[in-house]
User: Fold these one by one.
Assistant:
Number 1:
Amino acid sequence: MMPRRIAGAAGLLLVIAAAASAAGGAAQGAQVPAPDARRAVAALDSQYQAAVKANDAAAMGRILADDMILVTGNGTVVTRAQLLASATDKIATYSQQDPSQRTVRLYGDRTAVVTALLWLKGTRSGQPFDYKLWYSDTYVLTPTGWRYAFGQASLRLPDPK
């Protein structure tokens, strides 16, 4: 029984490696030096945060990958369509949407993860909010440029006393 599992796992790894190799080969012309990629992704993440603050669904739509999802700290999955509809409907208005301690980490030529502490303040459905959370945003390099593909937000951080 155990050899079959090992063979199955090895086969799966070979398929993943072949797919990664094919994807890497197709992206050879899209390689960007690390400092330039970090700057580009940091700038794009800043643009995204500004678009959210302004409820600018058009700008958000240009940055988000078509199949993008956000997983919140309580496990809720929010789709690209839901994010754009929330901005269009102005469900939340922000007086603060400010990231700090932003770090951009690159993984190969085509993946970057941005982590930051985000201060959110405003109103949602008429109710005030003011809290901080950590987020991780994953950006991928596509033929049309960097796109925000996956986000994960922490639970609200406790208020410092």
Number 2:
Amino acid sequence: MIMKYFLSIFLFFAALTNLQAQITPDSPQNSAKYIQTIEQSLQLFYQDYAQSSNYDSIITALNYETGTIPEFDDATYCARLAAMNEMSPFQMDCEPEVLATIKFFAAKRRSFVRIVMGRSKLYFDMFEQKLAEYNLPMELKYLAVIESGLRPQVKSRAGALGLWQFMYGTGKMFDLQENSYIDERMDPEKATDAACRYLKKLYEIYGDWNLALASYNAGPGNVNKAIRRSGGKKTYWEVRPFLPRETQGYVPNFIAAAYLMTYHAEHNIIPMDATIHRAELDTMCIKSGLHMSTISKVSGWDIEEIQALNPVYKATYIPKTNPQQCIYGPLAQIGKLVSLEDSLYATEDAIYNPNSNNVPLPENQTVQKEENETILSTNEAGISTVNHKVRSGESLGKIAEIYDVSVSQIMEWNNLKTTVLYVGQLLKVETKKTNVIKDSEVKLPPPVKEPTVAKKYYSVRSGDTFSKIAEKHSMSQTQLKKLNPGINISKLNVGQRIRVK
């Protein structure tokens, strides 16, 4: 599998080198083709990486029947824990409490392991990157599994929140901000960074990773009391009997999670299909406040998926901040938003702040206002500065012709990145010619229309799942659901027709 990745990377960069030799970047047409080729190659690599796994081969080799729950003797568990211990700074000792926890999860909590294995595709790459940045053990990624089940919006009865279950005060201590719209305890990256800093400090205090975990759960005060009651012992297993009852089970739970996510295939536990892999995400930072409904209206991106991939936002409004707020989404959706950025902010203003495009007038200035045009000022050379309101059917070329200016001038005056316009948009134009064109009432920007395509169907095959069918046709599960309303996605039959276009 690793050789496959290296081969993919080698072929990818070899292709780029070949393209560089053939394409002249000075040509706009060739440059666009070159960039498109790079993006397509990267997306194919990300998709291949996201779908890769090694559990199928292990389960096939073990010849397990569907639903089989394997059982092993204690010596097998202890041998596997010893192998993990050799590669870990944690004391993953084969203690009775650890064995009992592993056996319980392997028999009674198999669905939980399946679910978190699926969710791990979205978070573990990022966890490992952050842990490496702080020179921390990779096994700490399993801590979020027992803290939150890898659910960034889960909140405990005590008020702990996020993947790493920060209390409000602890979050503040590590610079996680909260206001009416944002709670950074639910921000996967910022909360992970804070957790790394916190865990690093705890390890510096105790010099023992198992005690650091106990302190993460119970607080340093309770661990210090337990150490004193133990007579000054310095390892977790020696101190454990003096810890609070919940914390006594915390490290065994951590070790059991690490064990089962390492040996899940041997236990015939097949991970749940991942909705999306971290490698398939991109980001876009926003210049102004935006409602998620606006993003959905302009791009057709499902609002529930926007919320799921951006849990830091408590509501469906993303405020303007400094530094800017960013949103995560699938590569295709973010690419679409970037290309429609001007329309995005214009639609937001048209819906929620319809007067935002009105340019403030200098004092004592006379104004001539008609249906379609506002003359803001005229200088000594007879050049008027005009606000032109776009009407249905107008393009930049047509507007440029009206005022006897160029398209590039209009784009420069209005800081436009694309030529896409919307009905009701105000454009500033400097011209010697003013034509007042009557228009009907202001309308919201027209929705982005997808090209009409012929319907296409796929027949379900043995082993297919809804998510696999979506991935096979480069779609999200949400998109596939929209094409197949009323279908039971958890119970597909061989030969069943699924619409994929």
